[in-house]
Write a structure and sequence with these properties.
Number of helices of chain B: 0
Structural class of chain A: mainly beta
Distance between the termini of chain A: 38 Å
Oligomer: heterodimer
Number of helices of chain A: 0
Helix content of chain B: under 10%
Helix content of chain A: under 10%
Radius of gyration of chain A: 14 Å
Number of strands of chain A: 11
Radius of gyration of chain B: 13 Å
Largest sheet of chain A: 6 strands, mixed
Order of helices and strands of chain B: EEEEEEEEEEE
Chain lengths: 112, 112
């Protein structure tokens, strides 16, 4: 079983919709959780970082972590065509040099 | 202008040749990482370094080598021993005491 599972999509939504992106993980030792956005042929851009169970909000983005279920989510409110990209979840822990363990990424398309 | 630079953006190599990818940063970050991304795959860790003159192997280090002679620079050499080197290579950095990683724009390597 891969350590981090993420549905690759593609996920297509109309502009203005609420988007829910999810990852599950198997190693309960993971301590830190990140979401990246990656446009085609570009480097990933850090969107959200969190380390505790619960919600963290930043503008239209909300990151949610449930450590008991080993489940993390990213919600995008009022989605825009410019949000069309691949979204990567990344998890890490301190005893691995904070190297990131990635899901495969979910491709999102927001249509006008 | 602060940031992470990777060069070249595109690189073509003949089979049997070694090639070196550059990663430079002026963020004064201590740790640097190399990841590889293949289509439909998440990023996978090749090597990382948390301090000058020290580095650790990642999950897929075979066929690669690195050096860390300066804090600002972490070049990656793809050797002829790497069986399938065509991929998108991403460099990332992290400040000591923090957990977030920030990525450069990437180098796309194609073996002809």
């Amino acid at each position: 079983q891969k350590e981090v599972e993420q549905d690759p999509g593609p996920l297509s939504v109309p502009e203005g919709a609420i988007v829910s992106l999810n990852c599950t993980y198997s190693n309960s030792a993971f301590q830190y959780f990140m979401w990246y956005r990656q446009y085609s042929r570009k480097g990933p851009e850090l969107l959200m970082y969190t380390y505790s169970s619960g919600n963290k909000e930043d503008g239209r983005f909300t990151a949610q972590v449930d450590k008991s279920s080993k489940y993390i989510s990213l919600f995008i409110r009022d989605s825009q065509p410019s949000d069309s990209a691949t979204y990567l979840c990344a998890l890490t822990l301190s005893n691995s040099g904070y190297a990131l363990n990635f899901g495969k990424g979910t491709s999102l398309l927001v249509t006008p | 202008d602060g940031g992470i630079t990777q060069s070249p953006k595109y690189l073509f190599r003949k089979e049997g040749q070694n090639v070196t990818l550059s990663c430079e940063q002026n963020l004064n970050h201590d740790a640097m990482y190399w990841y590889r991304q293949d289509p439909g795959q998440g990023l996978r860790l090749i090597y990382y370094s948390q301090i000058v003159n020290d580095f650790q192997k990642g999950d897929i280090a075979e066929g690669y080598s690195v050096s860390r002679e300066k804090k600002e620079s972490f070049p990656l050499t793809v050797t002829s021993a790497q069986k399938n080197p065509t991929a998108f290579y991403l460099c990332a950095t992290r400040r000591l005491g923090e957990n977030e990683q920030f990525f450069g724009p990437g180098t796309r390597l194609t073996v002809l």
